[in-house]
Specification:
Blueprint: E1 2-8, E2 11-17, E3 24-29, H1 36-43, E4 51-53, E5 55-56, E6 59-60, H2 64-71, E7 74-77, H3 89-99, H4 104-117, H5 133-145, E8 151-155, H6 163-178, E9 182-186, H7 190-196, E10 199-204, E11 207-212, H8 214-218, H9 230-239, H10 243-258
Parallel strand pairs: 3-9, 3-10, 7-8, 8-9
Antiparallel strand pairs: 1-2, 1-4, 5-6, 10-11
Helix pairs in contact: 3-4, 3-5, 4-5
Bound molecules: adenosine-5'-triphosphate (ATP).
The site of adenosine-5'-triphosphate (ATP) has 11 residues, from helix 1.
InterPro entries: AAA+_ATPase, ABC_transporter-like_ATP-bd, ABC_transporter-like_CS, P-loop_NTPase
Pfam family, one: ABC_tran
GO molecular function: ATP binding; ATP hydrolysis activity
């Protein structure tokens, strides 16, 4: 994407963003409200950019026809995804396969494969409303990966997963990336990024304030940055110059002065 601007009403959220998603696994970090979901919705072609260019799979996305063409190759797990509670888990994933135009003769095996990948094969016939929060998340991941999309956009995929499932999830996205998918995931769990991602982007004030490897982010750590690991301190250090961080500090100082 080039000089991409996105926002709501009169308020910009993403400003003049130049970004190229690399093959492999990219982690997207940023504080609440930084614009991660807004960026995902733009990449998933749900919200057209306000200005600037979106290019996917080597070609610009400008028309409805382009949108339809690229959507077949994108798997998107929104933060809060909708589903019919009475659908079985299989029906839900299969429906998502149909939405993405996975060929009918492949849909059944692709659905089975996706459910097995997230460890839900034994719950395939259960109704969506009977799943626990973590299982529901895994059903969402299955729906995003069904049919092996080239670009996977996962908005906070590990929320609600237990530690063993988080490890399985990392293995899953590593194998999808090895098979050629570009995976982008947002998270507030800095350790997930350190463990699984090749590249880490930090969004702050609607801009990318860091782009590099997790190790390069850890190297930006400063002695005064808060955090319990070099990666957390590096993350906090790169955010410390942003408007959001400065206004939080000012609010804290004002509170201290008032006491
Ligand atoms: N539909 C909307 N209408 C108006 N403003 C919105 C809308 N969706 C998001 N925003 C605003 O845009 C900004 C970015 O929101 P966004 O959800 O993209 O952030 P985020 O980085 O995903 O946050 P979080 O980590 O909390 O999920 C926020 O200030 C939010 O209030």
């Amino acid at each position: 994407m080039t000089a991409l601007t996105q926002g709501y009403g009169g308020r910009p959220v993403i400003e003049e963003l130049d970004l190229s998603i690399q093959p492999g696994i990219t982690g997207l970090l940023g504080p609440n409200g930084a614009g991660k979901t807004t960026l995902f919705r733009t990449l998933a072609t749900i919200t057209p950019p306000r200005s600037g260019g979106l290019e996917l799979f080597g070609t610009p996305v400008t028309s409805e026809r382009d949108v339809r063409r690229v959507r077949r190759r994108i798997g998107y797990l929104p933060q809060d995804f909708g589903y019919y509670p009475a659908f079985s888990v299989t029906d839900f994933v299969r429906y998502c396969a149909w939405l993405r135009e996975v060929p009918a003769k492949r849909a059944e095996s692709a659905t089975k494969e996706a459910l097995a990948s997230v460890g839900l094969a034994d719950r395939a016939r259960d109704r969506m409303k009977s799943l626990s929060g973590g299982m529901l998340r895994r059903a969402g991941i299955a729906a995003a990966i069904v049919g092996s999309p080239s670009l996977l956009l996962l908005d906070e995929p590990t929320v609600g997963l237990d530690p063993a499932q988080r490890l399985d999830f990392r293995d899953l996205i590593r194998s999808l990336a090895r098979a050629g998918a570009a995976v982008v995931l947002s998270t507030h769990l800095v350790e997930d990024v350190g463990a699984a991602c090749d590249t880490v982007l930090v969004l702050g004030d609607g801009r990318v304030v860091h782009s590099g490897t997790p190790r390069q982010l850890a190297e930006r750590s400063t002695p005064e940055a808060p955090g319990d690991s070099p990666l957390e301190r590096g993350y906090m250090a790169v955010l410390s110059g942003t408007r959001r961080s400065r206004s939080a500090e000012e609010a804290e100082e004002a509170e201290e002065a008032a006491c």
